[in-house]
Amino acid sequence: MKFQARNNHLINWPEYPLLRITCCFILGIYLSDKVSFSLQYILMYSFTLCSAIVFMTIAFKHSRLVIRTLSAIILLIGISLGVLRGNLQKGINHSHHYQKYLQKENYLTGRVLSEPKQKKRVSTTLEILQINGETSTGKLLVYFGKGDSLINYQIGDVLNIVGNVQILKDNSNPRAFNYKDHLKFKGIDYQIFLKDGKHKLINENRASPITMTAVKIRQWALAIFENRLKDQDQLATASAMVLGYKDYLSEDLYASFSETGAVHVLAVSGLHVGIICMIFIVFFDRFKSETRIFKAIKLITLLFAVWTYAMVTGASPAVLRSAVMFSLILIGRLWFKGANIYNILAFSALLILLYDPYLLFQLSFQFSYLALISIIYFQPHIEKLYETKHWITTKIWQLTSVSIAAQILIFPISIYYFNKFPTYFILSGVAAVFLATFILGWGILLLSLNNVPGIGDIIAIGYSKLLEGFIQIIEGIQSLPFNNIEGVYISERSVIILYILIGIIMFIISLKPRQYKDVFHKRLTRKRISKLILASCILLLLCNSILYSYRVYNHKELIVYDISKDTAIDIFCGNTLYTIQSKSIDTKKLDFASKSYRIYNGNPMENPLDNYVVDGNRHLILDDNGSMIFNSKHLLFADKVNLENALPCKSDVLFVVNKTEILPYKLLENHSTLLVVLDNSLSYKIKNQWIKECEKRGIEVHDIRKDGVFRM
């Protein structure tokens, strides 16, 4: 298992033109999402740069300064093209997007793009073809009525639907997962909740032949697994690892893989396509021929295997991306001798992002490319650190070095997105990668020989035992103490600094021994710059940590979260967290809304806020009648009020929360307030009474459902 590539040093930039252009193109896509650009401005800017290239090429042919200037202009054009492609991908900007024709009630025709999924409601995605008689474009998230749980639409079916189209709602909880942003990068900005029966099939199977073939092949493969694997966890694992089908995964099984750092094997991606390539490469390596005919047969066979596997898995975007990436790697490395691996990877990324620039924001895209680059660069260096003599220990060490190498470029964004780090990632990585090869190969063997009498039965029994052992290993690693470092916060700024730091380390590693000693030589300017950047990154990380600790210690805030049908209030007082929650609140729902923000603020221990709590720094005082002083503000909690006791005359904020049914006029007759906060736990009737009473008295209202979280 050798990942050493020719020309893999990242020093001589002129050898990496595609890598430089792709990096600039990626920067342009990122900017297009963060900043609004006029299409006319981008085109004019690009035309000006192209004109400058033509003029300078004609006027100055051999000047080194001109060549460098032209290189800089080409990179700027790469950025502008990235911005342009990112803007063009925004479906809502298209002249015929359906949102331009929206009415109160809409009649839409659309093609089913994804398999309907059953949760609380059946949902799918439609590609809109027509709205209210107007030809249109765009994607729409569709939720069917609760009585339509037995619908069986397929990808490619064309439907007529009727209903009120709504813009997707933001998740107002700070730092929580925002489903609206997630769907935005898939080109979906609107949703519709259909009433029972407000949909009709008008055409079947109108998808492309390739898509329909891929869907049917995966359905055939799923049927074989369902028939052969009776254990639900084994079926779920095989379906996810071989076919990329995750609907069978239970929450407990997924948690086992997630907490051990092996969750990547459940998503068909570059690892799985790479294993398919490796199986065939091992076979072809037995033949020593180097003729062009043999190379052509080898290349065609490998490409056929890659794309056949992509079809078996249903041709999902993640698999197609990996198939494109490995196809270009195979062509470049097998047919073009000496092709640079980083240029090949950059070219594959460029092609994929030209097709869909929003793939850049998908975790699978980021993890796939970062892991592969990390393995290609770091694995050979790590493997050299320890020499083994026996072939078994050599293979184990190679797998270990792959697991370690893959984490180097992944761990910054892994911690940033998930706020945790698996302690035993080396152990789980070795087990997962090693056994994934057999699970994938055996699974394909079962699909191929399923109908052969006797042989299919033997393969199925062996496959079941293999899956059982794999699941037990993962669950065993999960049961080890301290299997996760949880509650780790890392800022965007720290992620950037970490990648700069890793880049400098990669530069130093790539130097020859003599050059390495010269990094700290005072007379060498370039090496001194590297030394300065390295020290600066470490200093900046330290400063970031100090600033984070200072911010957490001085943080004082009250926040009412946006949680459906429940109350969740956090009161941060430095390193102490007080909470007010519904007694029956679901833990998963609470974590979804608040966990990321709590981690952002130091992940303090929860302290239920009971009566007569006095914070040591006098930031917080609560009495037995729902009255509180926080940050010099007088607060009152209606659910704790006893109308038979004396009430304070006034408050700055009145919180009507925790499913209280106290009537507004009874409380407001003897109490005045500047602001009333109504959370989502209140019944529709009680909330309306409070809104009307506050309007009558001229009191400002903050409705969590409508206005989002409340923070003070």
Written description of the protein model:
- This protein is of the alpha+beta class and 712 residues long.
- The protein is 52% helix and 15% strand.
- It folds into five domains: 13-89; 98-207, Beta Barrel (OB fold (Dihydrolipoamide Acetyltransferase, E2P)), CATH 2.40.50.550; 211-486, no CATH class; 492-553, no CATH class; 556-711, Ribonuclease Z/Hydroxyacylglutathione hydrolase-like (Metallo-beta-lactamase, Chain A, 4-Layer Sandwich), CATH 3.60.15.
- The radius of gyration is 30 Å and the shape is globular.
- The model is unreliable at 1-11 (pLDDT under 50).
Total separate domains: 5
Beta-strand residue fraction: 5-15%
The largest β sheet comes out as: 9 strands, mixed
Helical content band: 40-55%
Count of extended strands = 22
Arithmetic mean of pLDDT? 81
Count helical runs.
22
As a whole number of angstroms, the C-alpha radius of gyration is: 30 Å
The end-to-end distance, rounded to whole angstroms, is: 57 Å
Can you tag this structure with a few keywords?
single chain; 712 residues; alpha+beta; OB fold (Dihydrolipoamide Acetyltransferase, E2P); nine-stranded mixed β-sheet; globular
Summed up:
The protein is of the alpha+beta class. The chain is 52% helix and 15% strand.
